[in-house]
Amino acid sequence: MTKYEIMFIVRPTLSEEEIKGVVTSFEKVLADNGAKEVNVKEMGQRELAYEIKKFKSGYYYVVTLEATDNKAVKEFDRLALISNDIIRHLVTKLEA
């Protein structure tokens, strides 16, 4: 199994309930595509180093997961690019 770390930033204009909904829906995307979630870490709202899509802050999340192939990660990447709720994301493959 390959380990991945996904960091994503949710836009700050959403309510707390909407943010949880976004995180839950993306966790479901990962699980439905065969990824085994190891850890989800909420980093809270932070200032961005520079403005992204006219936002100066965002809610940071880090997800660590294991997957047999990169299907789940590719689907997360595709949907995160389309989503208006995620302003930036980064997928990193962790060394064993």
Low-confidence stretches: none
Q: Describe the sheet with the most strands.
A: 4 strands, antiparallel
What is the arithmetic mean of pLDDT?
A: 93
Q: Strand fraction band?
A: over 45%
What topology emerges from the helices and strands here?
Layout: E1 2-10, H1 16-32, E2 36-52, E3 55-67, H2 71-82, E4 86-94
Antiparallel strand pairs: 1-3, 1-4, 2-3
Helix pairs in contact: 1-2
Describe the structure.
The protein is of the alpha+beta class. A four-stranded antiparallel beta sheet has the order 2-3-1-4, with helices on one face. A hairpin with a 2-residue loop joins strand 2 (36-52) and strand 3 (55-67). Helix 1 (16-32) runs antiparallel to helix 2 (71-82). The model has no long low-confidence stretch (mean pLDDT 93). The chain is built from two helices and four strands, in the order βαββαβ. It is globular. 30% of the residues lie in helices and 50% in strands. The chain has helices at residues 16-32, 71-82; strands at 2-10, 36-52, 55-67, 86-94.
Question: How would you sum up this structure in a few lines?
Answer:
The chain is α+β, with helices and mostly antiparallel strands and 96 residues long. The chain is built from two helices and four strands, in the order E-H-E-E-H-E. The protein has helices at 16-32, 71-82, and strands at 2-10, 36-52, 55-67, 86-94.
Structural key phrases:
single chain; 96 residues; alpha+beta; four-stranded antiparallel β-sheet
